[in-house]
Structure prediction request, 632 residues.
Amino acid sequence: MILTVTLNAALDVTYEVGALEQGGSHRVRTVRERAGGKGVNVARVATALECEVVATGLLGGAVGDLVRDDLDQSGIAHDFADIAGTSRRTLTIVETETGEATVLNEAGPDVRPEEWQAFLDHFGTLAASAAVVVLSGSLPPGLPTDAYAELVRRAPGRVVLDTDGTALTEGVPGRPDVIKPNADELRRVTAGTVSNGGNPAGASEVVSRAASLRAAGAGSVLVSLGADGMLAVTSDGVWRAVPPRVVVGNPTGAGDAAVAATARALLLERPWDELLRDAVALSAAAVAAPVAGDFDPDLYVRLLPEIKIEGLPCPS
Amino acid sequence: MILTVTLNAALDVTYEVGALEQGGSHRVRTVRERAGGKGVNVARVATALECEVVATGLLGGAVGDLVRDDLDQSGIAHDFADIAGTSRRTLTIVETETGEATVLNEAGPDVRPEEWQAFLDHFGTLAASAAVVVLSGSLPPGLPTDAYAELVRRAPGRVVLDTDGTALTEGVPGRPDVIKPNADELRRVTAGTVSNGGNPAGASEVVSRAASLRAAGAGSVLVSLGADGMLAVTSDGVWRAVPPRVVVGNPTGAGDAAVAATARALLLERPWDELLRDAVALSAAAVAAPVAGDFDPDLYVRLLPEIKIEGLPCPS
Prediction:
């Protein structure tokens, strides 16, 4: 079983308006709501891939109830812990005339220390029967910054950690099996640790930065490079996977699709080159779908054999 | 007792952001939520004035529950009818750097015919013990356009109608005792019925337009003129009330405060000049408060004796 953890789960609200006018008054044409947060997106993709998956994390208040309702309707198995605060919403305002999207993210509820302790027990019970645990997204206010390290230590199975900033740097010492920063996130969390070498976007620099996170505790580092594919820095070697063409669409959720592919590959104990191929194809197929957590299944199957995999030199 | 009716009640959500950037991603600094809709604002002001008031209307779904929770916490007596649809939200995005406000209004739930019939019974029971009924705001999708006329006919007491467009023009034949358009609304609903006379903002034109709505069924017409005060066109005469100075602030909710003052004056059977004085003072005190439904009580008391009342010639 794959267990996804979303500590700052959200209700993703989408408003369609004609054109957004700063300082103006707008009639909202359509309102869509759906359970969100990166771990929930991973669970949605993994469910669509017919993996056995359970979504957990923290939920509270009326917004938490709406998230649970949507998970039920979407057929995603879930077992979230209750908190007293109200879960956050994210709002995306889409302008129908131009397609431009403006995003407003609420910070999330304050989690009390006793709620975090109760979640650790809840997580331990669920993780005991999970071959793979996925930890995704930001930490809500009130949680310790090393919350992810604590969860990694309590998980007996393989762990994928997909977060950013302090939550990532303080999560890595817990020794997750895989972390999945994108190139920007990687650069931010390794600032000062690797010399630039005059080529900020080069593969060798990315490999060096990833190697420094392996040294800090990460088993393997998957770096998503957007339209350029992904790069895996592992104890078995270094690989790069490149998609055959650029897919145009909504990149939100592409990283979550790659994490879902990674979790499935770990569950099935597939080798790194196969894992990378799957992650890059699924990620591109997610870009082609308009909403985070969805992917285009036909495009996914078409892209799989077209992903180019190449080995790279290991970091010196 | 004053009964306020809000058929399209809302949860008013306010987001504070640093600066709103079209196409950008924003962290919301603070989230505030409160029960809204024009009739709810009237009930809030009337409650603060220590009137006996009950708020009714239609509420549904998780948003409806949040509206009821806020009414409870605000000490506003309420008895809304349930509907299957989810009540709407309004979102105001306030930029802390400039104070500029961008507003997004959801349309509201589709109300089923049987829900409207059930509300008519519910309303009849409540209205039987209400000396004054206040009907405020837009109609949610699914209601007949003459919904307000139907409610006016079923109310044994005095009725104040504060709405716009078709809901107003089709509500007036029900013979409400008072309607309260602002100058723009008055102009829209009487377009073509009154010659312009070369002076679109003049008092005589406003009086003529108001008189045409009296001829269509309204007992008296209170026209709010923003910073210029209010004008009353009644069977007893025509009055204008002018505040001593311009109050700077948030005009949203100023009209609702004027309606609350009107409802109280009808309840206490006060003469029109006193009603106008009270409505203009309370309206200006509401502009000085940052949130619709609130008013500055000290400013209200200070302004009351300073409002200038003058009689105007009756329409020919």
